[in-house]
Write a structure and sequence with these properties.
heterodimer; A: 355 residues; mainly alpha; two-stranded antiparallel sheet; 80% helix; globular; B: 452 residues; two-stranded antiparallel ribbon; disordered C terminus; binds CIS-heme D hydroxychlorin gamma-spirolactone; binds protoporphyrin IX containing FE
């Protein structure tokens, strides 16, 4: 089978999701570090997180909306099926998204009194912890094939009453889905800690986040291994594809190399390299999932081609994506240039403020 | 609560909540841009301070708008999966374009809110203009999608499924022009009048405060032209409805019988059992004229349609009356303002005028909610007018009352917090008098000494 229009659009969804993980995911990770702020620089850690997220989180968040919109425009049956079977975790995730965004903003604009700040900070931090887990659970549930099975069996037999648990709960309430949830959380926290090392000129603060990044890297490793192991039990299709395909060896080698480079770079305080390696690692994990699932959009049966909208819609959307990208990327570049322009090369541990 | 009712209520509640923030997201950038432009051109520090303070309030609104909009995007699938399966390929186009409008909006908003000291004043103003333009674009695109639900085009119906799909033709549907025009104006009416009303109230308390005088005049500059145009645009909408959704028009007007020289009813209580609207003030031939341009035109009444295709008549009728009444009041305030501008009178000197503006504070928002009730409830029982019934589109998931209850609670809490935070912003507005000069350090802030 050749790579056709529907595949291109499926790929564009994966690309959007990747941007969401790399940018929006790190904003959630920042919330995790707000929750875990500790030590003598607790306050500084929190305010670094807030300053880093403030100007960009709304823009980073739009990637998720793009994923949703592309999914319902280009692959409507997949969107409809996911909306039905994943109703509960998606609803919980939405509540998390609402609380994270609003609490963060309220904290910025409410009174600076300590108790007020702590109240909003607490909601912000807990929502940042829970939401990534739920996102990962949804992805894990899709990858495991159970969501697809529930959609197919329901489509065959109707959503009979009495099958509530089988349709709406068991597809995602699985150890594998939660392992993916844990992986998402660890990955977001890892990305955030790595990025934050580049957001400050305060050497001590940078060390705080360097240590956190190394800790999170360990958590990513553990949860990734757990997810892979559970995949063999619960998502055999995914598990086998991940180890038996022609691309599995290169994929694992490159992902592993990215992970190791990120750790080495952190260890040796080459933060700019660490950032690239960490982003690469996250991207490869996502793309590995995509590759293992291809050509299915919702395993085990719904293929990208079967779920695709008519050709005319797809080609128009593709055109819109191209034009949109021409507007989007220069604007994004401007945003990050205004707020994130710093010396990003090797930063010595006693680096003085350069601003 | 039956699941269908819960789903409809959750959708209505989420949209009714989001629209408030969406409107502010369109209207406030216009006000901030005007204030900032004034500062750049005249060096008037009061205007800059105004732009900055408005930006603070707007930041809160934008965050709530963004998250409640995200909830909506998911809810389309969570509540109406088969509708999206049907309509996704057709109306996905405006939604995709809207996605990019969101991007530019969020990006330049970040720059606008956090970039006061990082970029040049002109670049900053430019960012504000981008926020305004992309906010308007987002609103227009999403309303086009809604207009398609009212007048679905761009496909052929074969065995109840759409074939020969043409998303461009779907975007060019008959309701698109009237709805997007009316909605965009509504955003400026509602925001302009509300901001004017708040500052008018503060002027009544602190006459002569330059800060509020400037705010009042900028807000009215945005609100008044839109308020005057809104009845005209509403008439365009009504003519569209008369032609394409006759059952909705009949419900709006409480028109049960098909007749020529149909009257325009002011007020009145529709009685569905008896099939008549009582105690209304009738203007003979008024409806025929407004809807079709001729006193003798025939208006189809509800009786021309099977009863299971009637929308809830009373709700639609009351909502329509309410919107028009509020619209006429605001247009009258607009005319008064123009009269004062033409005669170069000081707006703030006339306390009766200020009071009239204060009364208008919530009206644009109420009119908007009422207008959407007309549009959406008036479309019932259809989710896609004339083609798919709402009852057939709802998710099979049982127990929908729980998410409805949870989101309602969440939104009520958010609304309370937002109101408290805005109140905090407003009571801290500075007192600036003409004799105090325009240097910020000579301004008094009401909360001085209270600490941050
Ligand atoms: C500030 C808000 C506001 C004001 C003052 C008015 N409206 Fe309105 N109206 C809206 C805000 C709105 C709205 C919320 O924006 C709606 C809902 C859907 C839409 O396109 O606009 C609407 C819908 C709407 C519709 C239904 C359109 C449809 O279903 O497609 C009609 C016929 C009118 N309006 C007519 C009027 C008239 C005759 C007004 C006379 C003063 C008026 N509106 C004032
Ligand atoms: C008439 C109805 C609507 C209008 C005029 C409107 C307009 C807007 C505007 C102007 C914004 C940006 C301002 C802000 O964030 O406060 C916004 C945000 C948003 N809206 Fe709506 N909207 C409407 C209905 C909807 C619907 C039905 C959906 C989804 C299906 C939706 C999805 C969103 C999303 C996802 C955002 C967040 C974008 C971001 O993150 O910046 N909106 N809307
Ligand atoms: C933001 C302003 C809007 C408000 C206040 C609003 C209000 C409502 C209300 C009151 C209902 C329930 C109607 C009933 O069941 O009796 C409803 C339903 C619905 N609306 Fe809107 N609406 C708005 C804009 C939109 C837009 C822009 C879209 C889509 C693009 C949309 C899509 C829907 C859908 C899918 C339903 C459920 C199906 C139905 O009841 O027909 N709405 N809305």
């Amino acid at each position: 089978m050749t790579f056709q229009l529907p595949d291109v659009l499926a790929l564009s969804i994966l690309v959007s999701l990747t941007f969401y993980v790399l940018l929006g995911g790190a904003d959630f990770g920042g919330g995790v570090w707000d929750l875990l702020a500790s030590g003598p620089r607790k306050r500084e850690q929190r305010s670094l997180v807030a300053d880093a997220i403030g100007p960009v989180w709304e823009a980073n968040h739009v990637w998720l909306i793009l994923v949703v919109v592309l999914l319902f425009t280009c692959f409507p049956p997949a969107f409809a099926g996911l909306g039905i079977v994943l109703h509960i975790p998606l609803t919980l995730m939405l509540i998390g998204i609402v609380l994270r965004g609003t609490a963060f903003t309220f904290r910025t604009y409410d009174s600076k009194r300590d108790d007020v700040q702590r109240r909003w900070g607490g909601i912000f931090a807990i929502a940042s912890l829970v939401t990534p887990v739920l996102l990962g659970v949804c992805i894990g549930a899709i990858a495991s094939g159970r969501v697809g099975e529930a959609i197919e069996s329901a489509a065959a037999g109707g959503f009979a009453p009495g099958t509530f648990r089988a349709t709406y709960v068991t597809p995602w309430l699985t150890p594998f889905a939660f392992a993916v949830g844990a992986l998402a959380l660890a990955l977001f926290a890892f990305l955030a800690a790595v990025y934050l090392t580049l957001e400050t000129d305060d050497a001590a603060l940078r060390e705080d986040f360097r240590r956190r990044a190394l800790g999170a890297a360990a958590a990513v490793f553990v949860s990734a291994v757990a997810a892979l192991a559970l995949a063999f039990v619960e998502a055999p299709g995914m598990g086998t594809a991940l180890v038996r395909s022609w691309w599995s060896i290169p994929l694992h080698v490159v992902t592993g190399a990215a992970a190791v480079s990120a750790i080495v770079a952190l260890w040796t305080r080459r933060y700019a390299i660490a950032r690239i390696a960490a982003a690469g690692q996250a991207t490869l994990i996502l793309w590995g999932w995509g590759a293992a699932q291809y050509p299915l959009i919702v395993p085990p049966e719904m293929t990208i081609h079967r779920a695709a909208a008519p050709e005319r819609t797809l080609s128009l959307v593709l055109g819109a994506l191209v034009i949109g990208a021409l507007v989007l990327f220069p604007s994004l570049w401007y945003l990050f240039a205004v707020f994130k322009r710093r010396e990003t090369a090797f930063v010595p541990i006693d680096g003085k403020s350069r601003r | 609560m039956p699941d269908l009712l819960a789903a409809r209520s959750q959708m209505a509640m989420s949209l009714g909540f989001h629209i408030i923030f969406a409107i502010i997201g369109i209207g406030m950038p216009a006000l901030m841009v005007m204030a900032e432009r004034r500062w750049i051109r005249t060096g008037d520090e009061v205007s800059r301070e105004l732009a900055k303070r408005w930006a603070k309030g707007t930041a809160i609104m934008f965050a709530v708008g963004a998250v409640s909009g995200t909830v909506l995007s998911f809810e389309l699938g969570l509540l109406w999966p088969s509708f999206m399966e049907w309509a996704g390929p057709l109306i996905g186009m405006p939604f995709s374009l809207e996605g990019f409008a969101f991007f530019t909006e969020a990006i330049f908003l970040g720059i606008y809110l956090y970039g006061w000291d990082r970029i040049s004043p002109r670049a900053h103003l430019g960012a504000g203009v981008m926020v305004l333009a992309s906010g308007m674009a987002s609103g227009i695109f999403v309303v086009i999608a809604n207009a398609w639900m009212n007048s679905p085009t761009g496909f052929d119906l074969v065995d109840g499924r759409p074939v020969n799909i043409d998303p461009i033709a779907a975007m060019m549907n008959p309701a698109a022009f009237s709805q997007t025009l009316h909605m965009t104006l509504a955003a400026f009416v509602a925001t302009g009048m509300a901001v004017a009303g708040i500052h008018a109230l503060l002027l009544l308390r602190q006459p002569g405060n330059l800060f509020h005088r400037r705010a009042l005049s900028i807000a009215l500059t945005v609100g008044v032209p839109a308020a005057l145009l809104q009845p005209v645009s509403g008439d365009i909408s009504a003519k569209y409805v008369a032609r394409w959704q006759p059952a909705k028009l009949a419900a709006m007007e409480g028109q049960f019988r098909t007749e020529r020289r149909a009257p325009l009813r002011i007020g009145g209580i529709p009685d569905v059992e008896a099939r008549e609207t009582r105690w209304s003030i009738d203007i003979p031939g008024g409806l025929s004229f407004l809807a079709f341009g001729s006193l003798d035109a025939e208006v189809r009444g509800l009786e021309a349609f099977p009863e299971d295709e009637w929308p809830p008549v009373a709700i639609v009728h009351y909502a329509f009356q309410l919107m028009v009444a509020l619209g006429l009041y605001m247009a009258a305030v607009g005319a008064w303002t123009i009269g004062k501008w033409v005669r170069r009178r000081d707006l703030a000197a006339d306390r009766w005028f200020l009071r009239a503006v204060v009364v208008a504070t919530p009206m644009g928002f109420i009119a908007t909610e009422a207008g959407w009730v007309v549009t959406e409830v008036g479309r019932q029982p259809w989710i896609i007018y004339g083609i798919v019934r709402t009852a057939d589109a709802v998710t099979p998931m049982p127990g929908l009352v729980y998410p409805f209850a949870i989101f309602t609670l969440l939104y009520v809490l958010l609304a309370i917090v937002v109101v408290l935070l805005l109140y905090r912003q407003i009571v801290r507005s500075p007192r600036i008098h003409a004799d105090a000069g325009t240097a910020p350090d000579s301004w008094l802030t009401t909360d001085q000494g209270r600490g941050g």
